[in-house]
Amino acid sequence: MSEQKLPRGVPLRLYGRRRGHPLRARQERLLAETLPRLRLQPEEIARLPRPLWLEVGFGGGEHVLAQIAARPDVTYIASEVFENGLCSLLSALVPEGAEATGPLPARLRLWPEDARALLAALPDGALERLFLLFPDPWPKARHAKRRFVHPAMLPVVARVLAPGGIWRIASDDPTYQAWLRETFAAQPFFAPHAFHEARPEGWPPTRYEAKALREGRRPLYWEWRRL
Q: Which CATH superfamily is domain 25-226 in?
């Protein structure tokens, strides 16, 4: 894999959790037998069929499942490091007992590593869409550099998102919402495409959105267009 160097200011250390509660036997089988069958291999990155979409931090996988069902013509890369989230998606794809043999979506690939490393490896203009839904807000100011949306990350995303490509972002955290407005206010890579105060049609729901609404938080939804 021919990696491009990430710019100064993009952290190389992954701060998010990789595992929550202990994995059950079924989950262990999913990681050992199903995940390798879907894992994106470095040697195939350059020849992935287009159009190509990427979701960063897919959580429980609800959005992934809805998108691949709606657009089977799209090659969809779903990135997540949290093993319990990986297992949630994998368990919805194959029945118990068929972890090693059950059919899988032909144009779905999983990236169970830091998405920043994948972005550094993707060819210029490879992506048509990027999804970042309810990311960890890292609300403390001293942790701002850990946020995926960061001034140092914008040129990284801009390089791999084709001109006219769309970056969708949703957040229920007021600190992150303010950070998004500030970060996108003064940059030359993206123009506002749409802003929604309620989830619009074509944005599949997620468990994190449902949790936010139950707990009285107000999600906001942005679309940015690559210039």
A: Vaccinia Virus protein VP39 (3.40.50.150)
